[in-house]
UniProtKB/TrEMBL annotation:
PANTHER family in the cross-refs: WD REPEAT-CONTAINING PROTEIN 55
Swiss-Prot/TrEMBL WD repeat ranges: 140-180, 181-222, 315-342
Biased composition (Basic and acidic residues): 360-370
Family according to the record: Belongs to the WD repeat WDR55 family.
Basic residues compositional bias, start-end: 394-405
SUPFAM superfamilies named among the record's database cross-references: WD40 repeat-like (SSF50978)
UniProt feature, compositional bias: Acidic residues: 348-359, 371-389
Record flagged with keyword Repeat: yes
InterPro entries in alphabetical order: WD40/YVTN_repeat-like_dom_sf (IPR015943), WD40_PAC1 (IPR020472), WD40_repeat_CS (IPR019775), WD40_repeat_dom_sf (IPR036322), WD40_rpt (IPR001680), WDR55/POC1 (IPR050505)
Region of interest: Disordered: 348-417
Protein name per its UniProtKB record: WD repeat-containing protein JIP5
Alphabetical keyword list: Repeat, WD repeat
Domain of life of the source: Eukaryota
Amino acid sequence: MFQTLEYRQCLLKQSLLFFLEYIAHTSTCQSLCLIAAFINSKMPSTLQPDTLSYKSTVFDFAFHPTENIIATALITGHINCVKYIPGAGNNESLWNVRPSKKSCRGLAFNHDGTGLFTVSKDGSIGALDVNTGNVLIKKPEAHDHPINTVKLLTEYILATGDDSGTIKLWDVRTGSEAMQYSEHDDFISDFDFDSTSKTLVASSGQGTISIYDIRKPNMLDMSANQDDELLSICIVKDRRKVVVGSQEGVLNIYSWGEWGDCTDRFLGHPNSIDTICKIDEDTVATGSSDGIIRIIDILPNKFQGIVGEHEDFPIECIRLSSDKTYLASSSHDDTVRFWDVRYLTSDMDEDDDEEENENEESKSSDKRDGDNDDEAGPNGDMDVDSDDSDAPKKKSNNRRPKRQPPAKNNPGFFDDL
């Protein structure tokens, strides 16, 4: 897919980084880890956009669902929107606004990328026009306490969690509160969501994770207390496992449906695991307070190497771009850095393309056969236009059919989106 000389050179350098970090991890030789980080910091950035630098701490950022656009939220309340382009000096600033004087703690694009949801320390929720940065709507005092995290669950449902442990679900069509859960007594640190079962999982500072069916008003289950702050959460292994990062640097692994206690633990991070990003169903990237971004295989649990580092500054957030080309990371060094991770995702994409091509060829072959024999066979079966054909079918994306929008005479909370 990417056969340029620069890309092959990048792959070679990243392989060297992985090798050095693997030796450092298995032999406890910290000097090799430092060498790997140094090499990575000196790598040319021809395959990745310039680092975004600010004068204050970046609390959160979000990738646009379809375009090469990234939005960043700062502790000052400013929100920046940037079009990122590979190569030195190519990034283009689109707009910079300050909808709140309090810090902006979280961002989430809506389903089609036309709007940007924001949450703030003052407990408010807002929505911005992505094209202009104009404030479309602001809902003050949506929470009684500062909001710490936000996630768009479906096209119409937004989840928010605050510092007191309260979780709220919002219908973005009307701006009304759909559900409220108050089982936690400490801050909500992170969310993840399974669209197939409509299940929301949340990690918290009190040391537990909670599980919710967003169609029901009551919590489904809560794990035992781990006596450790749980800071990040990620669903992997096709919804069979949930990986949770902790303050002590342990990855706790839960089996789906067995929420009482974790079924496995992965040690090795020297500091807290503040953020987790899924690369694929078997692999995650972790951001730690030691400033290093690591790649971890899940079951079998295996440390694979590093993607990059922010020197000694704690990593606040890592995200994967929608096209899986870049992994971005923000840190207390007031920057957002881009890391080209096509070497991690290209094999997976090629496998998917091959499978899709095979399915298309099989369906075309069956259709040609059907055109030559459009009469019922000996058993009365028809080979043409049958949903029960023996031809291999594409994997279902399990998407829920879209619901009808509300009537026009009922003005929506985010109608302008």
